[in-house]
Amino acid sequence: MEQSLKRILPPKVVQLLKNRRIRTKNNRLKKLPALSISQLEDIVRNKLGIMEGDVVLIHSSLGNLNLKCSPFEVLDLLLKIVGENGTILFPTYPKLTSLKFLEAEKVFNVSKTPSYMGILSELARRHPNAVRSLHPTKSVVAIGKHADELTKNHSESIYPYGEQSPYFKINAFNGKTIGIGVSTKNLSCIHCVDDIMKDEFPVMPYADKVFDATCIDIDGNKKIVSTYAHEIRKMNYDIPKFIHKNVENEVCEDIDISGMKFFRADSTLLLEKLLSLAKEGITVYNKKHYRRR
Predict the structure, then answer these.
(1) Rounded Cα gap, residues 4 and 84, in angstroms
(2) Span 166-196, pLDDT tens digits
(3) What confidence tier does 129 reach under pLDDT thresholds 50, 70, 90?
(4) What does DSSP say about strands 55-60 and 87-91: parallel, antiparallel, or unpaired?
(5) How many other CB atoms sit within 10 Å of the CB of residue 236?
(6) What pLDDT, in 10s, does the model give residues 257-290?
(7) What pLDDT sits at residue 30?
(8) How many Cα atoms are found within 13 Å in the side-chain-facing hemisphere of 80?
(9) Domain spans in the chain, listed from the N-terminal domain onward
(10) CB–CB of 45/56 below 8 Å?
(11) Four-point Cα dihedral 74, 76, 81, 86, nearest 10
């Protein structure tokens, strides 16, 4: 939205609108019940269903919660809940959209390129035990027992959410996906069905080009990673509405707790459901973008 406004409004007007939006958000947060670390633990365990040994992909925006604890405490809490046999993962996308990042020929450094997917994802990226997948636009950081296995080989497919990606690999571990401070609007693994079905998927969601991106791996070596990038005009969809209409609550559901957003999903059951729906021609995408058969 902000990028669209920048194209049609003077910079001062855009900044005024941004400041007003921030004030409105801050005023709303002040009215929400304060959430302690113990209350958050109860939500993660009993509302989102996370337990010891789980492999969990986490989407988050702590700025949408009225927290009485620090982001460091939240990360420690999540690690404590899954324990030494579990693994937590966070998407760690760059600031720009995938298409703009690749068109600008930006260099992705697996050790240094920051995450713009919330402060929790950036703290996880900086954790001493973190392992990050080598992908220029859809990288994932993991901490825990299965971190290496989940993140390796992400660079080996042009499909960022395909079988080589952490988004798909968590299914081998009965993976779960949750949102803390966000709704299913942020549900990235919904794109796994696109990349698994490939040409059989009703929509071609990517720009008509495979990009060769320069990446720096963990050893400081340059590597060219080839990947697709989502075509922006096709990304105008409503995931929460789609989930509510087409997916059972036990598979995936949005949860509102005292005006704060959360969600939970069984990743394997969700993928199975999305595959079944796509084969019937039902996807999150607008019908105008469907392939002509």
Answers:
(1) 45
(2) 999 999 999 999 999 999 999 999 999 999 9
(3) very high
(4) parallel
(5) 9
(6) 999 999 999 999 999 999 999 999 999 999 999 9
(7) 66
(8) 13
(9) 1-31, 34-289
(10) no
(11) 120
Q: Which amino acid is located at 112 in the chain? A: K
Dihedral sign from CA coordinates of 3, 9, 12, 13: negative
Q: State the DSSP code for 163.
A: T
- State phi, psi for 88 to the nearest 5 degrees: -110, 145
Residue 15 pLDDT grade (very low, low, confident, very high; cuts 50, 70, 90): low
Which residue type is seen at 254?
A: D
Structure tokens at 102: 């690749």
DSSP letter for each residue of 92-119: ---SS-HHHHHHTTPPEETTTPPP-S-H
Q: Of 227, 237, 150, nearest to 186 (Cα)?
A: 237
Q: How far is C-alpha 250 from the chain's CA centre? A: 20
Tokens of 150: 């989940």
The H or E element containing residue 261 is: strand 260-266
Token pair recorded at residue 27: 């005023």
Q: What percent of the chain has pLDDT over 70?
A: 90
Question: How far, CA to CA in Å, does 277 sit from each of 79, 109, 227, 235, 283?
Answer: 34, 37, 26, 18, 7
Tell me the CA end-to-end span of the chain in Å, nearest whole number: 33
Global pTM? 0.90
Does the pLDDT at position 16 exceed 80? no
How far is residue 40's CA from residue 47's CA, in Å, rounded to a whole number? 10
Position 33 scores a pLDDT of: 84
Cα 57 to chain centroid, rounded: 8
Q: Where are the alpha helices (DSSP H) in 218-266?
A: 239-246
